[in-house]
Amino acid sequence: MKFPHKLNICKNNIGLRGGALAKKLVVCVDRDDDLGEKAKISGPIIGRENVLRAAVALGLKDPEDSDSNALFYAIKLYDDLVAEEDAEVAVITGSIKLGKEADRKISEQLDDVLQKTGANEVLLVSDGAEDEAIYPLIASRVKIGGVRTVYIKQSPNVEKFIHTVLRTLKEEKIQRKVYVPLGIALLIYSLASLVGHPSAGLGIIGLSLGIYFMILAYNLEDKFLVIYEDMKESITRGGILAPFAMVAMTLSIVGIMLGSTQFFMLQNLPIGYRIVEAVSIALLWLMPALIIYVSGKIADWWVRERVFHTTAFTIMITLIALNFLIMGSMEMIKMIVEFMYYGAISSSHITPLIIDYIIGIMIGIAGGYIYRYIKKRESVSPSAAE
Prior knowledge:
This protein is of the alpha/beta class.
C-alpha cells in the first residue's frame, strides 16, 4: 500500500459525508507534530479515510509512537458516534518546537476544521503529555464534550521499563532536556577541577540545576522560546531587538556567576547572610537585564511598526521601580539576618534601604502619572496605537 508523500486534506471538505455539516467532531491533537516530522503529513486532516491513512503512515514510520494509537482511537470513537448521530473526525497538528508556534498552528487549523465541518461540540483525543496544554485554547473556541487520553497497555516488568526509558531518550525533544543540562554540568565540574576548585564547581552545578528545574516547574521554557522567536522575527524584519536581547542575556549570565562566586567567597559568614548577599549581587545584574530587554521590545516595535506600546512602557517603568524596591528589601533582609545571628544591626544598611525605597516609590508614582497622561493623549488622538 502506498501513501502520498505529503497529505494536505482540507481544501474541499474531503471526507465529509455527503457534504453534510457535522455537529459533533472527534479531534485528535498532535501538538508536537509527529505526523509532519515523521510521516511528512501536514494538518489539518479531515475525514475517516484520510485520518486512517495518516495513522497507518505514522505507524509504518515509527511503530512505537503513541500518536498512532491516539489516531486509531479517534477513528474508533468516530465509528461509535457516527452510528447514532452526525459526526466527523479530524486531526490538528502543531509544531515540534511546541510553545507559541505550536499553539498558533493549532488555533489556525482548529478554526479551519470548525468552519468546514460546522461542528458545535468536540471530543478531544490525545496521548497526553504536551497535547493537554492546549485544552484551554480549544475550549475558548468550541464546547468540549469530553477528553480521551490514550495509554498503551504493556506488562510492567523491568526489561520493558528500561527499554521504554532508552527509547524515550532517543526522542529529540527529550534529548534537549536531559543531555544538554547533563553535558553542561560535566563541563562545569571539569573546568572547576582543572583550576583547582572542584567544590565550587559542584556549587555552581547545584545552582544551575536548581534554576533549570524551576524553569521546568513553572513552564518557563516556552517563555524562552518566545524570546528566541521574537529575536528571529526581529532580525528577519529589520528590527533591533537582537542586540538588546544579547546584552540582557550577557548581563544575566554575569549576574548569576557573580552571585555564585559571592556565595562561595563568604565562607566565614552565616549561610543565611551568604544566600542573601549572593541573591543581592545577582539581582544587581538580572533586573537591569530584564529592563534592557523590555526596552529593546519597545524600541523594536517603534522601528518596525512606528507603534508605541503603552503597556510595554508601563511594564518597563514598573520594573525599574521594582528594581529599587527589591534592592531595599534585600538590605532589610540582611539587617534581619544580622540581628538573628549577631543580635545587632549594622547601620550601613539603613541608608541604602531608605534611598532605594524612596527612589522606587517615586518612580512608581511617576510611572502611574505618565501612563495616565499617555492614555489621555491616545484617547484624544485616534491614530495612536496601544
